[in-house]
Amino acid sequence: MSDTKISALPSIAAAADTDVLPIVQGSGSAAATRRVSLAQLRGGILADRAYHVRDFGAVGDGTTNDAPAIQAAIDTMATSGGGVLEFGPRSYRIASPVVVNGAAITFQGAGITENPSGTNGTWLRIDSIGFTPFTFTGTAARGCSVRDLGVRQVHSAAQVPGWEPTNYDFVFRVQDCLGGVEFRNMMMVGVNRGIWCDNSGRLNVERLRGQVFTTGIQIDRAYDTCRIQNIHFWPFATADDDVVRWQQQNSDAILLQRTDGVFIDDVFALGARSVLRLTPSASGVTNKVYVGKLYADFALYPIWIESSGVAAQIANLTTQSEIFNAGGASLAGASGIRIDGNNVRLQIGNLRIDDAESNAIRVNGSGNRLDVFSLRVLNYNRLNDGSAAIHLADVPTGTPNAIYLGSPPLLTGGGSGPVLNSGSNGHMTLGAPSGRLDRPGVTLGFENSGLFAPSATEVAVSAAGVEVLRAASTGTLTLGGASGAHGFGVSTPANSVNRVNVAGAVAAGTPSIAVQGNDANIPLALIAKGNATIRLLTRGQTAFEVNATGTPSNYIRTDAAASGGPPRFLAQGGDTNIHLQLSPKGTAYVETTAPLRLPAYTVATLPAAAAFARCLIYVSDGAANRRFAVSDGTSWRWPDGATVS
């Protein structure tokens, strides 16, 4: 290049792409003048620049249909591998479909201002029905994102009782992408349906706020983990009573169908039928839902599970179910948690439910299990009809429903409503770990005193680290020490109908041990071990002892008697003839405190003397001084030795 001054160069009307222009590279002694064409300069400056919708004819005046211009930009970008498509701070009317299917494209807005009019920032305006405004479809669209813009729909119906929204389709459909599409920092003002995702896992929705009338986010056939976080649905477009109350009967903030693993966190929704609804589709049900924090305000069924076999975990959940702007009245039929499926497994860490009309938690179906660590219920049983805070449906056939509480529930404002409904075979349990002797699962005052489970079939009680009671599923109960070293035990045979009842007594009364049961006559057996005796003690000393010799078959029976009759000692047993013996100790004698009465016979009716050797009888018709007779084993003899005759 010559050293001609720039001021001396000839002028031209316009530079062509081939015109050579001087540029200086470097500075100081390293500066050098280079030749470059205008085309080269343009190419360098515009290399990798983001696309802008205005370059393809978008006007952004809120009136012109900008969808064709946006589609033209997308088609051009698809030929060069995608990129960023910028939207200026304008209102872009969308009146025809836009489809992304050839490359990963980022829709980049210029930010949004929270307001009901859809102004200030980047807004997409929709005012006609019968089409899907934006569709991301096919595997080439994986990686697309929509950022920093708002959506506004026009609803012309008068806001009066019976109001319904205009039946717009979902604004965004993610269909058959088989992979991730992202929505971030967006606002939906007065939108009927927001985001639909089908057959496309790894959906990511972050910082979405607005007012959605029918469905906020709906997902089906998501076979890889989706993420939904920082959601804020509130009456941004209108807080009209008739509109919000329509939402309370018809709107689902997040609706999940067949999804395999979903992470949900920081969700708030005001005015909805449900905030999290799990419902089945032809492809299956939701499994493995993880919720961090969720707050449902003015919602009919904040958590609504219609699917069967669902597994879900919620860390922190707060619900409130008043009619919007109605002075505190509850929505008809409202429950904080409603389960209509079967075999649901729902775990909740901290749960607060306010203003349920009847039941704070209502579990229909069968085989459902809820685990709630901490439960607070404020204002349930609003109808004052005795409704329970927790309702578990009765299950005549199948597995009953159950709820396990990690701590006693805190119930306030429930009137006469109980914790759990009656008339159901469902059960509520205050759960705890099995524990051990020195650290029971349920502690009472001290960490080594309480209830624990020595095995899967036993429960036991420890006091100061010492086992004092154990009960087994076989019906065995031990008291006073560890099983095997206990002081008292109770065994219950299978199908037992007879039992022993021990009863105390009031002052001057007599404690008792009684036999009870179904049989009309029930014996009571006291059984000593081995050859040991049975003793009755009074004043600390043995007052009566029962013993047996050899292998006994003969025994003594005592009979009480009615008034006027004598009590009796009777010899009983297997032998035909059994003697009854009174044996004093040592050289002592047998004494009576009243005359001893002998059996009376006549001379003609004397029994055989051989059977009664050394026995004494009274002979009623003997001669003078001959009334007593003694058997010598052969004959009966008078006291003078003469044979009785």
TrEMBL record:
<dbReference type="Pfam" id="PF12708">
    <property type="entry name" value="Pect-lyase_RHGA_epim"/>
</dbReference>
<feature type="domain" description="Rhamnogalacturonase A/B/Epimerase-like pectate lyase">
    <location>
        <begin position="53"/>
        <end position="113"/>
    </location>
</feature>
<dbReference type="InterPro" id="IPR012334">
    <property type="entry name" value="Pectin_lyas_fold"/>
</dbReference>
<protein>
    <recommendedName>
        <fullName>Rhamnogalacturonase A/B/Epimerase-like pectate lyase domain-containing protein</fullName>
    </recommendedName>
</protein>
<dbReference type="InterPro" id="IPR024535">
    <property type="entry name" value="RHGA/B-epi-like_pectate_lyase"/>
</dbReference>
<dbReference type="InterPro" id="IPR011050">
    <property type="entry name" value="Pectin_lyase_fold/virulence"/>
</dbReference>
